[in-house]
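Page 47, continued from p. 46.
Same chain as before, 184 aa.
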Amino acid sequence: MAIIIVLILAALLILWGIGVQRKLVNGDELCKNALSQIGVQQNSRWDALTALVELVKSYNEHEYNTLKDIIAQRREIGPSSTVEEANAQESALGKVFSQVKLVAERYPDLKANEQYLKTMDSVNVYENQVRLSRMTFNDTVTKFNRMVRQFPDSIVAGLLKFAVKDYLKEPEGKTEMPSMNIGK
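Result:
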Protein backbone atom coordinates (compact mmCIF):
# COMPACT_ATOMS: atom_id res chain seq x y z
CA MET A 1 0.00 0.00 0.00
CA ALA A 2 2.81 2.43 0.87
CA ILE A 3 4.43 1.77 -2.52
CA ILE A 4 1.20 2.70 -4.29
CA ILE A 5 0.96 5.97 -2.34
CA VAL A 6 4.58 6.79 -3.13
CA LEU A 7 4.02 5.99 -6.83
CA ILE A 8 0.89 8.16 -6.91
CA LEU A 9 2.74 11.05 -5.22
CA ALA A 10 5.67 10.64 -7.62
CA ALA A 11 3.28 10.61 -10.61
CA LEU A 12 1.53 13.75 -9.31
CA LEU A 13 4.89 15.45 -8.76
CA ILE A 14 6.00 14.55 -12.30
CA LEU A 15 2.72 15.78 -13.79
CA TRP A 16 3.01 19.02 -11.81
CA GLY A 17 6.62 19.46 -13.05
CA ILE A 18 5.53 18.88 -16.65
CA GLY A 19 2.75 21.44 -16.23
CA VAL A 20 5.15 24.04 -14.84
CA GLN A 21 7.67 23.35 -17.61
CA ARG A 22 4.94 23.88 -20.22
CA LYS A 23 3.91 27.19 -18.60
CA LEU A 24 7.53 28.34 -18.55
CA VAL A 25 8.11 27.43 -22.19
CA ASN A 26 4.87 29.18 -23.15
CA GLY A 27 5.93 32.31 -21.24
CA ASP A 28 9.40 32.23 -22.78
CA GLU A 29 7.93 31.98 -26.29
CA LEU A 30 5.55 34.86 -25.58
CA CYS A 31 8.53 37.00 -24.53
CA LYS A 32 10.40 36.10 -27.72
CA ASN A 33 7.34 36.88 -29.81
CA ALA A 34 6.84 40.24 -28.10
CA LEU A 35 10.49 41.18 -28.77
CA SER A 36 10.10 40.10 -32.37
CA GLN A 37 7.04 42.35 -32.70
CA ILE A 38 9.16 45.29 -31.58
CA GLY A 39 11.57 44.45 -34.37
CA VAL A 40 8.74 44.40 -36.92
CA GLN A 41 7.54 47.83 -35.80
CA GLN A 42 11.08 49.22 -35.74
CA ASN A 43 11.64 47.96 -39.29
CA SER A 44 8.53 49.81 -40.45
CA ARG A 45 9.82 52.95 -38.79
CA TRP A 46 13.27 52.45 -40.35
CA ASP A 47 11.62 52.18 -43.77
CA ALA A 48 9.67 55.40 -43.23
CA LEU A 49 12.78 57.20 -42.01
CA THR A 50 14.76 55.87 -44.98
CA ALA A 51 12.11 57.37 -47.27
CA LEU A 52 12.50 60.69 -45.45
CA VAL A 53 16.25 60.52 -45.91
CA GLU A 54 15.75 60.07 -49.65
CA LEU A 55 13.62 63.22 -49.65
CA VAL A 56 16.39 65.07 -47.81
CA LYS A 57 18.83 64.04 -50.54
CA SER A 58 17.31 66.51 -52.96
CA TYR A 59 17.74 69.36 -50.46
CA ASN A 60 21.27 68.85 -49.19
CA GLU A 61 23.84 66.19 -50.09
CA HIS A 62 25.82 66.59 -46.84
CA GLU A 63 22.71 66.07 -44.70
CA TYR A 64 21.80 63.07 -46.82
CA ASN A 65 25.21 61.43 -46.34
CA THR A 66 25.09 61.99 -42.58
CA LEU A 67 21.66 60.39 -42.33
CA LYS A 68 22.67 57.55 -44.65
CA ASP A 69 25.60 56.74 -42.33
CA ILE A 70 23.26 56.59 -39.33
CA ILE A 71 20.79 54.39 -41.22
CA ALA A 72 23.65 51.96 -41.92
CA GLN A 73 23.42 51.09 -38.19
CA ARG A 74 20.07 49.38 -38.80
CA ARG A 75 19.94 45.86 -37.37
CA GLU A 76 17.21 43.24 -37.37
CA ILE A 77 15.45 42.62 -34.06
CA GLY A 78 13.92 39.17 -33.73
CA PRO A 79 13.07 36.50 -31.17
CA SER A 80 16.72 35.72 -30.47
CA SER A 81 17.71 39.37 -30.06
CA THR A 82 18.58 40.81 -26.68
CA VAL A 83 16.93 43.66 -24.85
CA GLU A 84 20.17 45.63 -25.29
CA GLU A 85 20.00 45.21 -29.06
CA ALA A 86 16.37 46.43 -29.12
CA ASN A 87 17.32 49.42 -26.98
CA ALA A 88 20.29 50.19 -29.28
CA GLN A 89 17.99 50.19 -32.31
CA GLU A 90 15.58 52.49 -30.52
CA SER A 91 18.47 54.87 -29.86
CA ALA A 92 19.63 54.75 -33.50
CA LEU A 93 16.08 55.40 -34.69
CA GLY A 94 15.86 58.39 -32.37
CA LYS A 95 19.10 59.79 -33.82
CA VAL A 96 17.86 59.53 -37.39
CA PHE A 97 14.53 61.07 -36.51
CA SER A 98 16.16 63.97 -34.69
CA GLN A 99 18.45 64.62 -37.65
CA VAL A 100 15.55 64.54 -40.10
CA LYS A 101 13.59 67.03 -37.99
CA LEU A 102 16.65 69.30 -37.87
CA VAL A 103 17.02 69.20 -41.64
CA ALA A 104 13.31 69.93 -42.09
CA GLU A 105 13.68 73.03 -39.92
CA ARG A 106 16.49 74.29 -42.16
CA TYR A 107 14.54 73.74 -45.37
CA PRO A 108 10.96 75.07 -45.20
CA ASP A 109 10.28 73.71 -48.71
CA LEU A 110 10.95 70.22 -47.42
CA LYS A 111 8.45 70.66 -44.60
CA ALA A 112 5.83 71.68 -47.15
CA ASN A 113 6.49 68.67 -49.40
CA GLU A 114 3.38 66.43 -49.52
CA GLN A 115 5.47 63.25 -49.54
CA TYR A 116 7.34 64.49 -46.48
CA LEU A 117 4.07 65.15 -44.66
CA LYS A 118 2.68 61.70 -45.49
CA THR A 119 5.89 59.98 -44.44
CA MET A 120 6.00 61.93 -41.17
CA ASP A 121 2.46 60.73 -40.47
CA SER A 122 3.65 57.16 -41.07
CA VAL A 123 6.56 57.66 -38.69
CA ASN A 124 4.08 58.89 -36.08
CA VAL A 125 1.97 55.74 -36.49
CA TYR A 126 5.02 53.48 -36.29
CA GLU A 127 6.33 55.34 -33.25
CA ASN A 128 3.08 54.63 -31.45
CA GLN A 129 3.14 50.98 -32.52
CA VAL A 130 6.69 50.57 -31.20
CA ARG A 131 5.63 52.14 -27.91
CA LEU A 132 2.70 49.70 -27.64
CA SER A 133 4.95 46.76 -28.59
CA ARG A 134 7.46 47.77 -25.90
CA MET A 135 4.66 47.90 -23.32
CA THR A 136 3.44 44.46 -24.42
CA PHE A 137 6.97 43.07 -24.14
CA ASN A 138 7.45 44.42 -20.63
CA ASP A 139 4.03 43.10 -19.55
CA THR A 140 4.90 39.67 -20.97
CA VAL A 141 8.28 39.71 -19.22
CA THR A 142 6.55 40.60 -15.92
CA LYS A 143 4.29 37.55 -16.20
CA PHE A 144 7.22 35.31 -17.12
CA ASN A 145 9.42 36.64 -14.32
CA ARG A 146 6.64 35.97 -11.80
CA MET A 147 6.51 32.34 -12.92
CA VAL A 148 10.29 32.01 -12.64
CA ARG A 149 10.49 33.64 -9.20
CA GLN A 150 7.37 32.40 -7.38
CA PHE A 151 7.53 29.31 -5.26
CA PRO A 152 6.97 26.41 -6.02
CA ASP A 153 7.34 27.00 -9.78
CA SER A 154 10.74 28.57 -9.12
CA ILE A 155 12.06 25.11 -8.24
CA VAL A 156 11.27 23.76 -11.70
CA ALA A 157 12.44 26.99 -13.34
CA GLY A 158 15.79 26.72 -11.57
CA LEU A 159 16.20 23.04 -12.45
CA LEU A 160 15.41 23.76 -16.12
CA LYS A 161 17.61 26.88 -16.24
CA PHE A 162 14.82 29.39 -16.87
CA ALA A 163 16.06 32.79 -15.72
CA VAL A 164 14.48 36.16 -15.09
CA LYS A 165 14.39 38.29 -18.26
CA ASP A 166 15.40 41.94 -18.57
CA TYR A 167 12.88 44.68 -19.21
CA LEU A 168 13.16 47.20 -22.00
CA LYS A 169 14.11 50.53 -20.54
CA GLU A 170 12.70 53.81 -21.71
CA PRO A 171 15.41 55.67 -23.65
CA GLU A 172 17.00 58.35 -21.49
CA GLY A 173 15.28 61.69 -21.79
CA LYS A 174 12.35 60.14 -23.59
CA THR A 175 9.24 60.16 -21.46
CA GLU A 176 6.62 60.84 -24.09
CA MET A 177 5.99 60.61 -27.80
CA PRO A 178 8.26 62.94 -29.75
CA SER A 179 6.55 65.96 -31.20
CA MET A 180 5.57 65.36 -34.78
CA ASN A 181 4.50 68.96 -35.17
CA ILE A 182 6.17 70.11 -38.36
CA GLY A 183 4.57 73.52 -38.54
CA LYS A 184 2.94 74.52 -41.78
